[in-house]
């Protein structure tokens, strides 16, 4: 398995005719234009692969010959970067128990205003994505995707969800890789600092294993610097946010991230920025000596399990009527660097294809704190002076240059799934 994240010029991966991508990129830019002030993503197609069978492109007429040419190129690229070699060795694929569905999307410009804010770390797709590939058509240096290694086991909600989606062999491989990385923490720079900076060379390609990485569109802005003093000043606002939804939870099964999340946000006393109760609780849990971490363990939960429901329940159990415990916990937490993104990270996005499948009947949005992120500094804000200065220069030079790329999601699908059956794929 290509481990973690690789980022390099296409010519360093594709040794034969890498110039082929330039012509494709020009055709894509012409066919799929930029829409001002809108973060456009064009869905080109999904390609279904079964072991030693002819792949199927759906829809076949998405963009005529262009789609076919892009799919052919991507297959060559994924062979060159080792992903197809890995897949072709997996018994769950060679037995045709599972097929591969590759979503191909084109971004004409992912550099709109919303990406000038603090980085929003997340994972891609609905839990069955094993590889992500980004192929840029840049001619000058570009800002690197920000990322760090996720060595923690998934939160309970995501683990149970992925148990339904991914082959057991693949899940075991991920568990073993996480254990290895935890035991070699000091050897991994991406466990000690959030990677970023500048990528040199033309046609940069970025590939990663989605379950092992938290990533974000790059930003030159810094995260919110938090402290015990600010947390104490924000206590009343946080307590009000938790109390409002605690009553709701008494009569409802759970909180919905998108419908109820606004009630969990409040203005910080230190500035005009929003603070999110879920992120606040997740960052406090990054100190293992806090009462919050003890409470989570007593409830048989871990820091990565802190979602909307758990954040509210933990707050009400620990802090709502016990200000002293809150003050003690935030005092412990500020012994290490304390940074917030101003948002809660999405570990699992909704996928309507899974919701429409009778085998699942749902596709949850799972919010999960990236454990340890609040204690890590970013290359983009705490790297060397030379690195930070160059990043600012490159970002300024690229301010009016489209951040244009193809993105592929490589998903694992049971051959019996409604999506595969509905595609008409014969294998």
Give the secondary structure arrangement, pairings included:
Elements: E1 5-9, H1 20-31, E2 42-49, E3 56-58, H2 65-80, H3 83-87, H4 91-94, E4 98-107, E5 129-136, E6 142-143, E7 146-149, H5 156-165, H6 168-183, E8 198-199, E9 204-209, E10 213-216, E11 224-225, H7 228-233, H8 235-249, H9 257-260, E12 265-267, E13 274-276, H10 277-284, H11 291-298, H12 308-318, H13 323-333, E14 339-340, E15 346-348, H14 352-355, E16 366-367, H15 379-382, H16 385-397, E17 405-414, H17 418-423
Antiparallel strand pairs: 1-9, 2-3, 2-4, 4-17, 5-9, 5-17, 6-8, 7-10, 11-14, 12-13, 15-16
Helix pairs in contact: 1-2, 8-12, 10-12
Q: Characteristics of this structure?
A:
427 residues, alpha+beta, 2 domains
Q: What's this, in brief?
A:
The protein is α+β, with helices and mostly antiparallel strands and 427 residues long.
Q: Please, how many helices? A: 17
Q: Classify the beta-strand content into a percent band.
A: 15-25%
What Rg is obtained from the alpha carbons, in whole angstroms?
22 Å
**Domains, number:** 2
Total number of strands: 17
